[in-house]
From TrEMBL:
The keyword Transport does not apply. The chain crosses the membrane at residues 7-26. This is FAD-dependent oxidoreductase. Keywords: Membrane, Transmembrane, Transmembrane helix. The keyword ATP-binding does not apply. Coiled coil: none annotated.
């Protein structure tokens, strides 16, 4: 049976960008339909099980007010509901996991609870309709406008068609772009097209970043070894020229130097999680794999509450780069192979990984599918670092923000900024056989022009599918930037709805653009990085 719905704004995809987009439109008084194909909203923060990657200044500035409310909501949830020690409860910048990758490492389901609480008033009032689990399967297009999107229930196949004057693509891989005929690109652009120092001579559309299937583990008494994966022997022997050893091993390239470096791994170290400072300026933090993405530090909780730390495995060895999973007819096969790689990594850790005492394996490592909300123990969704990207009115290129290119000038300042972000250009090994590409970047802005497709009038990107290149996607893909992109897209759609204008008209009219930017500022957006001086 096919149902029909109508909304002011349709947001397809309930990841961080999608939730932020919906919230912005709802705050502006619009009726919104939001869809999500997995059991949890939140995307990379929840169903993909990736703790937030953020800039060194996140506790002071550099994110929108609503993203800050999300972060503080996560901390408050722990304070209200978890048996924290008094010292942990009193710490203003509580990091529940004491992980080194971020100043806020936490269990995914806590973020789900906070995100749901942010949407709850609008669900209660009926201004928001959440369709879950639904994925887009078709679109009705009339010339340069998207009229409606048809969605299918993941489990039953039931179809719902939603019409809306403004449609936002917040899917993880830009699923609406081919469905609507919106012009897009994938993989590496060529240096002759973009002028980027790190780009190849010729375009490589099938050369995309690795996809990863994350999982959570703890370490307790007993033997929790999983069944040997069917493809374990393949992965156990797999190696590539630039890795420095077998993929299943603690030796892997340092992303910033490309020199092979030995990681350490020791479950439940005798450390003080309250003393950990997650700061990317001090290094990537991945040399100690257990604490790298630890999401629950047992010593932050009252004695006995947690039998073990819980750590999130999103390590170099689970990066699947044998083939792309976008615009590939065998995508499902390769996603299953990526899951097989993750299972093989766990089995290797349990049975063969070298220990400091000369032994092999930690059979006490226990897969925590309850933490990731899945039946097979792995994350519900694969972690997609790269999406299809719109061909935009403005494309952000490496030389806009590379520290090597820009130097003391800092990143390009855009007249149409709708937000800011900061992260190194961080590209993982790719399906074309490339090693890491890791480039220091300047704190950057998000131009409105990167949200505007070159042709389609009423579709906006609300995540990693905006107008970046393969290279600049490496710093625009992180949690707070994705949230800012989505929130800006939702606000732009609502602003355009009020005036019955295509979004590009806002970018074309200086008076409208100034009015829109004023609205963003009033909503708690930061459009420029602070330039602090004496006064």
């Amino acid at each position: 049976m096919k149902q029909e719905l109508q909304a002011d704004i349709l947001v397809v995809g309930g990841g961080l960008g999608g939730v932020a987009a919906a919230l912005a439109a709802l705050r502006a008084g619009r009726r919104v339909v939001l869809t999500e194909e997995y059991d949890w909203i939140g995307g990379q923060l929840t169903s993909q099980a990736v703790p937030p990657d953020e800039s060194s200044w996140v506790e002071q500035f550099g994110v929108t007010a609503s993203y800050r409310r999300l972060r503080e909501g996560i901390r408050e949830y722990y304070r209200r509901h978890y048996p924290l020690t008094e010292a942990a409860r009193a710490k203003r910048d509580l990091n529940p996991g004491g992980g080194h990758v971020s100043r806020l490492c936490h269990e995914p389901r806590v973020a789900v609870a906070v995100l749901e609480s942010m949407l709850a008033p609008y669900l209660g009032s009926g201004t928001l309709r959440l369709l879950q689990p639904y994925r887009p399967v078709a679109a009705d297009v009339d010339g340069d406008r998207v009229e409606a999107v048809t969605l299918a229930h993941r489990d039953t196949g039931e179809r719902i068609t939603v019409g809306a004057p403004y449609v936002l693509d917040a899917t993880e891989t830009g699923e609406l772009l081919p469905l609507t005929g919106t012009e897009y690109t994938t993989g590496f652009e060529s240096a002759k097209d973009t002028g980027e120092p790190s780009a190849p001579d010729e375009a490589q559309p099938d050369n995309m970043q690795a996809v990863s299937v994350c999982f959570a583990i703890d370490h307790v008494d007993g033997d929790h070894t999983i069944d040997k994966p069917a493809d374990y022997d393949f992965w156990r022997g797999f190696r590539t020229d630039f890795w420095g050893g077998n993929l299943l091993g603690f030796r892997a390239p340092n992303p910033r130097t490309l020199e092979a470096a030995e990681r350490t791994f020791e479950p439940n170290p005798d450390d003080d999680p309250l003393a950990v400072v997650g700061d990317q300026r001090r290094g990537g933090g991945d040399m100690n794999l257990w604490t790298f993405r630890r999401i629950a530090a047992r010593r932050n909780f009252t004695p006995g509450a947690y039998a073990s730390d819980i750590t999130l495995v999103n390590w170099p060895m689970i990066d699947y780069f044998l083939a792309p999973v976008i615009d590939n007819p065998d995508a499902a096969l390769h996603l299953e192979k990526a899951r097989g790689l993750s299972r093989s990594v766990l089995y290797w850790l349990q049975t063969e990984a070298p220990r400091a005492d000369g032994g092999a394996g930690w059979p006490g490592l226990r897969l925590r599918g309850d933490v990731t909300g899945s039946t097979d123990g792995l994350a519900q969704a694969p972690y997609h670092r790269e999406s299809r990207r719109i061909k935009a009115e403005y494309t952000v290129v490496e030389q806009d923000l590379s520290a090597a290119v820009r130097g003391d000038k800092g990143a390009v300042s855009y007249h149409d900024s709708v937000g800011i972000g900061m992260y190194r250009i961080d590209l993982h090994p790719s399906t074309g056989g490339d090693n890491y590409i890791d480039v220091a970047s300047c704190p950057f802005e998000i131009p409105l022009g990167a949200l505007l497709p070159v042709r389609v009038d009423n579709l906006l990107p609300a995540g990693k599918n905006l107008g970046t290149t393969h290279i600049t996607n490496g710093c625009y893909r992180l949690h707070p930037v994705e949230w800012n992109i989505g929130e800006a897209a939702g606000a732009l759609a609502a602003f355009s709805f009020e005036r019955n204008l295509p979004p590009r008209a806002v970018g074309d009219d200086p008076a409208l653009l100034a009015e829109f930017q004023d609205r963003l500022t009033a909503e708690g957006f930061e459009l420029r990085w602070p330039d602090v001086a004496a006064y």
